[in-house]
Amino acid sequence: MSLLSFESGYSVRTLKRHFHQYLSKPPMLSVFPSEKVNLIIDGTYFSNDLCLILYRDNTIKFTQLYRLTDGEWFEELAEDLSNLLQLGVQIESITCDGHKALLKAIRHVCPEITIQRCVIHIQRMCRIWLSRKPKSEAGRDLRRIVSGIHLIQNTIQRDYWIVDLVKWHDTYKGYINQKSINPLTGRYWFTHKMVRRSFMVIKKALPEMFQYLYNDRIPNSTNGLESFFGHLKGHLNIHRGLSGKHRKQFIQWYLYFKNKR
Q1: Which residues contact 49 (CB under 8 A, 6 or more apart)?
Q2: Which side of the chain, N or C, has fewer Cβ within a 10 Å radius?
Q3: 97 with 125: CB under 8 angstroms?
Q4: pLDDT over 70 at 83, yes or no
Q5: CATH numbers and ranges of domains, the chain
Q6: Quick one: which H or E segment has residue 55?
Q7: Average pLDDT over residues 4-8
């Protein structure tokens, strides 16, 4: 700010006043009504429980809608989807990370729309749960299978991958269903919960994991938005002194200028 003050001839106080006036009037985004929109929906969190949820048209790289809130809630997500439909956005597919509230909202508002689960998110979470070097043979074999998800580019590769997964389950179903029991309370838990959790996530997501193979307009991951969020946070970190209110306004201006580009 001192350098800008020196170069512009304005005092730091005057510059701050101008910047604050500018930030205080963020423009509204304009929805771009179009057919066969392939949305990527994802949220990211900032400090003080600030959550930004973006509804981004993957084809034209355009943010159709956003919400600044404190979490990913069903009521808000359902309202946003309803508003998009009413404003003329004809959604063909939605790619998302599988957040329960979002899946519930999609199935409630637009159940006919194709859902594509983010394969990179599934892969990443399974790798975290299985760890880099699983101790069990079941964990090592499942990690090998999980590591190939992002390489699937056609239905033949998908079918071979599913066969590999089914064989894994036939081999280790007794292992992942093994239970440990507390003799005092009678309560039980799955002994190998991380391996079981990884498999169950894949099993539940499987019907919605490979929609992109039938429509090349459908993105198979939310990586595009994660990169977008990374750039936004990088720019925001340069202005770490902004108040909470001004941080929100900065984000609104950022989204506006990104759409203009």
Answers
A1: 70, 71
A2: C
A3: no
A4: yes
A5: 29-118+221-261 (3.30.420.10), 119-207 (no CATH)
A6: strand 50-57
A7: 57
